[in-house]
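Researcher: Let's try something more involved. This one mixes different molecule types, so please make sure each is placed in the same coordinate frame as the others.
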Amino acid sequence: MDINSPNFIARSKSALDDAGLQKALANLKAGFPGKRKKAMARMPEFDAMRDQAVEIKNKVIENLDYYLETFQTKVEANGGQVHWASTSEDACQTILDICRSVDAKTVTKGKSMVTEEINLNAFLEQHSVTPVETDLGEYILQLRGDHPSHIIAPAIHLNLPQVSDIFEEKHQLPRKEDPAELMQEARDIMRDHFVAADVGITGANFFVAETGSTMIVTNEGNGDLTQTLPKVHIVVTSIEKCVPTLEDLSLYMRLLSRSATGQESAVYNTLSSGPKQAGDQDGPEQFHVVLVDNGRSSMVGDKQQDMLRCIRCSACMNHCPVYSQIGGHAYGWVYPGPMGSVLTPKMIGIEQAGHLPNASTFCGKCEAVCPVRIPLPSLMRTWRERQFDQGQGAAANRYGIQIWAALARRPWLYHAITRIAMPMMKLWSGQKNRISSLPLARGWTLWRDLPAPEGKTFMQQWNQRNKEQQP
Amino acid sequence: MSTAKQQILGRIRSGLKRGPLNEQQQAILSQKLTSRSRTIQPARAKVTGQTALDDFKAMAIEVATEIVELASLEQLPQTMNQLMKDSNLTQQPLVLANEPDLVALPWAHAGITTDIRVSTKGDSVSLTNSLCGVAETGTLVLRSSPDSPTTLNLFPDIHCAVLHKDKIVAGYEDAWDWVRDGDLPRTVNFITGPSRSADLEQTLRMGAHGPKRLVIFLV
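Model: All components are placed in one shared frame. Result:
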């Protein structure tokens, strides 16, 4: 996927002006947060479970080398293979090599954000292997030459007529507008792909060190058909998705569905442990796991380490006031919303993704709903600090912050200036007590008036009150 | 050892400011991996007896699973015949798992043609056994085996599964214990309702790529 994060501001502006997108985003606001809240209410132990989920993931990271090696040993004992990939390029090449070893022409794909991250589809196409996305949302996007704008609801930016349009154009069948008929059409077409594919590629929501298993969590069942029918199953996942045992997995299963869609459980939670066994009538003959690093190992021991707990539930973006206004494409790369604003600078560089950690009101909702309590606002703040230290960002912002910092460290000067500024602003506002245009603050006053100060500073009022209250 | 593996493990260890774990540290972690020690279980994953059965039914129905209660397995062919009639599927074969207790039932007598095989494109209805049911979310658990191919749980429009009431457990952990009591199968399916998708305008609709109906015969 092309990197468009440097154009974040322009993309946000056009997103706000896009009536279709705004209509689609309204569905998000009306959907996931309310459903999550209902699921929370039915699970009084949820907060205690979150605490434990933090603890377990932290322990996994502290011993990640051990768990990854143990996982590999178990996968091999089950008859599968583990491949390690430091970079996106390595991961793509490994996957292509496996495809070529069985002379694969087409591969079916279950929904996987890691394969978006490594840009797998484009790579396979360049090397004459045709990838077919099987998740309904991903399939629609692939037909459109589009990319996901949400990590679990990839086509959330589209409205129904756009789906009718693309199906009519690409399937060459009579136009359908009824959602049930559109879904049936995709179902019928996809069945041929499931059967024809030589290789099935899925992601993994989790992998289990104890048993050498991977798990996918889905609603449609496409991931299951993808991994069951072809002769080769490749799981593409990233190193932090490890959980120690099936008991630990149970905890994360309970957290994931409820945090994501508000479902008590997703429809299909499927554990895969190797290839077809003796006597099995179906299932793949080969089972490969590609462990993708792509910058994650350098987050261990780093300020961003907490981000490695992320289980990709999407609760942070579902509750984010910024995401819900601009949608996922504005962020300009694979991972949108608060989790993306922390992860993207790590993966594509803060020089390119500098706007993202700044696109936050720091309202704290993302951290409040995160099932593994990732301090997302603090992590975004560390990126802002790094930007400042490296001399990046708009000059006006940098000088503004420097001036403010200089004042904040000299309270006598700060108070003196505010004592002068407050009455002046009051004067500027005139009769209506509201300021409709203010130099240096046009970004604010263009959209709304600034209430005029009442004439005295907070400290003046505070001191006055304290004096009055003294006997 | 592959170079990529060495690099990745090296970066992790340098981030953790230590070398590989020593044998004693590894033994502690290894012991934990096989201890089956449970994490916090919600109260509803610890129910027993009638409560577990009631919870299972209520949760399953909530996700649009159909529950049909049978006094005995012998009633199954007639009940299945009715189900297939109601769905205009009498001309279709019932794709059957090769489970002795299911195969032994008098299907022909009930006017049903059975096919014992994997499922493929175009199949309408399948019948399998199940490993257990989980009360906390009304989840059906199936394990793959030579006699119970996974495609039977996924491909047909209607997936029917027999679940004996004494195989209803409270929580996911109990189901994993059942799974681990035998050799680890290739696949374990936790299935909670029929297939669905919310990819069209965020509205949940049934029948995406997996079965459009999930019918549990509770015996």
